[in-house]
Specification:
It is built from three helices and two strands, in the order H-H-E-H-E. By secondary structure, it is α+β, with helices and mostly antiparallel strands. A two-stranded parallel sheet has the order 1-2.
């Protein structure tokens, strides 16, 4: 690939400034990588009580695919049942690299 100059402010020279990538979803490659690396809770996550994730779309998708076995059921969406892992999407842990549109969030209405 071609190196990207992150200090460049021209979207023609720095594709990370294109509006199309604001809070971009995972690519097919990213989804496949998550599936390949899916964590089996019986091997690695015994006793997990909480998963905290960035609210950016790609981070949420990554977590949902990777921790698929820990998604709450519709019967227990609030995690009140014993053994159910609670999920939090927290604004304070999202990526923030200023200029890059890929690290900006979509409006909540989207």
């Amino acid at each position: 690939g071609i190196p990207i100059d992150l200090s460049e402010t021209n979207p023609e020279l720095n594709p990370l400034l294109l509006p199309d990538i604001i809070d971009a979803p995972l690519t097919d490659k990213g989804r496949n990588q998550c599936i390949e690396q899916r964590i089996d809770k019986s091997k690695y996550l015994g006793g997990v009580e909480l998963i905290v994730v960035s609210p950016l779309v790609r981070a949420l998708e990554t977590a949902c695919i990777t921790f698929h076995d820990h998604l709450p059921s519709t019967d227990n969406i609030n995690g009140g049942e014993e053994g159910v892992v609670r999920w939090i999407a927290h604004e304070g842990i999202r990526e923030e690299l200023g200029l890059l549109l890929c690290n900006q969030r979509r409006p909540l209405k989207e």
